[in-house]
Amino acid sequence: MKKETFIKSTVILIIGGAITKALGMFIKIIMNRIVGVEGISLYMLIFPTFSLFMTISQLGFPIAISKLVAEETHNNKRLIFSIIPFSLILNLFLMVVIIMIAPVLANDLLKEPKTLYPILAIALVLPFDSLSSILRGFFFGKQKMMPHTISLITEQITRLTLIVLITPTLLEKSITYAVTGLVLVNMLSELSAIVMLSFFIPNKRNIRKKEIIPDFANIKNVLSIALPTTGSRLIGSICYFFEPIILTFSLTLVGYTSNYIVTEYGIIEGYVIPLLTLPNFFTNALSNALIPVVSRYHVTGNKREIKRKLRQVIIISLLIGIPITLVLMLNPVFFLNNIYKTVHGGSYLRFIAPFFIILYIQSPLSSILQAMNKSKNIMYDNLVGTITKIILIFIFSTLKIGLYGFLSAMIANILIVTFLHFKTIKKELCM
Whole-prediction pTM value? Predict the structure, then answer.
């Protein structure tokens, strides 16, 4: 029965992931056609900041809630209603922080005043993103993947519709307004996901008064799992946040112009990486489905089944990732031109593509570690990889090899983190 549930959950996530990935790719194409290279470059310049604050905003709640719900030892209603108020208070604090640091970040660190309004717009998105992630965590724990899938598709369709309707009008005013609109679209798309998820919440009418009162024991249980998990994601997000800052500083130090840096960084993050992460919808589906299943095997000490799941996800991830990577490597300009109507980024794509094959197995390995209560190990592995990446970005950038130094640092991070994850799992399972 558990095997059938896992297979069913995985299939739903894969199908839903394929649809949302296709929609996401189509959204990126539309964005590129509407705002062009300048708009995409500005959006990608502020996206690390967006990613960092979303990580802090979610605080690892989805994974923690998923794990606790899957264990079936808690009152799920009290669990959810305990963590939502805590989340809202956290997000109000983050909104204030963003308003305070936005001018310094835009003008002094990123050295691009046009990013001020888009950074401020991030503050309005955070509460909606956090609430939708909490609800998705609940459904993951129940191994009900249909609500998650339908909400993601709804979210992407809403985002696509709003971009097409709003962005061209904002672009007539300025590129800054257009990019700000692209950020705010996320607020409304997350709201549509929350509405959709609420339709699937069971026994809404049977919620008793005492179940909506926050329980500090529940908050403590969630935080005991969420904080180490967030620590791991936070390290990656902090690294991502500092990427454009360090890159801009080190490249301008050796003579590259700010315009060159913003444009090339935008090409890599806006065109090259999205193409290479196409197989991620599949590995992410496997990873999300793995957590509740492996959690149960871990509680019962069934290492044999965990090993079997590990072999399965690695083989399947590679079978999907390798062919896609090879196709992109052989003719990168063809895909860039036909998808984004640009020939920029072909050499970057060919340079880094082989190493993304390793990245495709990193997400499933991380999920297995989380399910085995090894969130601290994930945090340590990411810390080592992040520190190495930050140091190498600065060193390689000063070698006057343009953005290839940045790509080399990214490759080092992929190899180090994946190796450390696998080493920890091998030790834990006595392989």
Answer: 0.73
